[in-house]
Amino acid sequence: MHGLKNVVALMCGLLLSQRVAQAAVYIRQTYQTGTLTCTKFSTIGLPLKDDCAAALAKVAPVEPQACTKQFETEYDYVTVGTCTIHTYSTTRGMAHCLDGNLIIKGGEEILENCTSIIGDQEYTGGQYEWSTVGENGEGVSFIRAPLEA
After folding, report:
1. Hey, where are the domains in the chain?
2. What secondary structure letter does DSSP report for 148?
3. pTM
4. 36 and 130 Cβ atoms separated by less than 8 Å
5. Count of CB atoms within 10 A of residue 30's CB?
């Protein structure tokens, strides 16, 4: 009888600890699927695919432990050549503190599915959104980097 009570107590403790842990974590889980849109791109054009692949290689696959920076709904995460990885978090204002795993996952989806060849160059661009709440959400996009003056 004591064995059964111990098993029940252990299971309840595990369930409780999972609920507490989930309540404290604000990062989206990487196994969720997102929405891919290939038609969204910068008004100044599309970035080169190789530049976006190089920029994506600079993203660390880590979850931020705490976000202490100020509220930001949009953030230019990293730029390489013609490509800027642009993140947004219109719901939570944490565009600068998003999970690197999600940025990488979204970036890979864009690279694999949103490419076009123009002349002898291969371009990419698009948006991958992993969280949507009404008109708000969180995601990543590849946009053309601003032209240097």
Report:
1. 30-144
2. P
3. 0.71
4. no
5. 14
